[in-house]
Amino acid sequence: MTLDPTVRGTYRPRRRRSGNPPPFQMIPRDLDILRAVARYRFLNTGHIRRLIEGSERNLANRLKGLFEHAYLDRPECQYDFYRPGGGSSLSVYALADKGARVLSHHDGLIIGNHARWSQKNKQAGRPFLEHTLAIADFAIAANADVAVRAGVDLTDGDDLLTCLPEATRALAKPYRLSVPVVFRSERKAIGVEPDYAFSLGFSDLGQRAYFLVEIDRGTMPIERSDLTQSSILRKFLAYSALWRAKLHTQAFGWRNFRVLVVTENENRATHMRDVLSRLNGGSGSPLFWFAHTQALYARNTLEHHWIDGSGSMQKLVPAGV
């Protein structure tokens, strides 16, 4: 046992470290936990249980140990989630400075001379935390569903990055592109960057499909008349211009891509499709596929029927695969 059984019953506050932790010895599973948290920036206990093998009780003990010994942080902004009578949300973890040094030693993680993970965790706000967790929801679900599907593979993160042209890989933000957009007789350069990017390979077809994901939590206006301000319409215009100019081929080496828009409710998804339809003279656009979280995560993400901007149903995996 790495945790001293004599202190098993001691109350340990959730929001702060006790200051007198029991003995703790790092094991390979702990390194896997640190790697997972570093990859996604923030993860809750549900994410970690899905990514890391082991019983719920064992993982809970390892997480407590990693937190008590300052390998992981519990960002303070997460406690805004708790409401009287509302029960407890899953605890959220972030990589702490000590955990970053461990990964630097074992994996060569580049932490930089001025990197202060714990300081960034303290400065993180609730909207950023929620958005990052929502991105993890989709990425982890998609990876888990592909893992049990024969004939399909998923590439994302560093593995997808290595497949991009050298000039793109060298950029600080490889997936961020600036595109010229004309809207209401006004021309502007708009920057667009997806929340998540991945590709699916289909061995039977010898093909790959590429996807850029936008996670919408309902905090951004769908329409604004001023393109200098953020909006969903602004994203539609930028991605559409990117597609027409074939910048995805130039920057990423991709022949195709689709934009997956994950919204919080069906009404908002319908509103987005209506805006897209008006933007394209009533025809919509098959470039964008829409889903709302309740339906998407109720079943396997590969089997979910997305609705594209033209009103047609689509699936991530082609028929017959």
Q: What overall form do the CA principal axes indicate?
A: globular
Q: In which order are the strands of the major sheet placed?
A: 4-7-8-9-10-11-12
Distance between the termini: 47 Å
Poorly predicted residue ranges: 1-12
**Mean residue pLDDT:** 89
Q: State the helix count.
A: 12
Order of helices and strands: HEHHEEHHHEHHEEEEHHEHEHEE
Q: Mind describing the biggest β-sheet? A: 7 strands, mixed
| Beta-strand percentage range | 15-25%
Cα-based radius of gyration, to the nearest Å: 22 Å
What structural category do the secondary elements indicate? Answer: alpha+beta
Count of discrete domains: 2
Q: Give the total of beta strands.
A: 12
Helical coverage, percent range: 25-40%
Explained architecture:
- The protein is an alpha+beta fold and 321 residues long.
- The chain has two domains: 5-124, Orthogonal Bundle (Arc Repressor Mutant, subunit A), CATH 1.10.10.10; 149-314, no CATH class.
- Helices cover 37% and strands 19% of the residues.
- The chain has helices spanning 28-40, 45-51, 56-68, 97-107, 117-123, 126-147, 157-161, 166-169, 232-244, 247-252, 266-279, 293-296; strands at 42-44, 72-73, 92-95, 152-156, 177-183, 186-192, 196-202, 207-215, 258-263, 288-292, 306-308, 313-314.
- The strands form three sheets. A seven-stranded mixed β-sheet has the order 4-7-8-9-10-11-12. Strands 1-3-2 form a three-stranded antiparallel β-sheet, with helices on both faces.
- It is globular, with a radius of gyration of 22 Å.
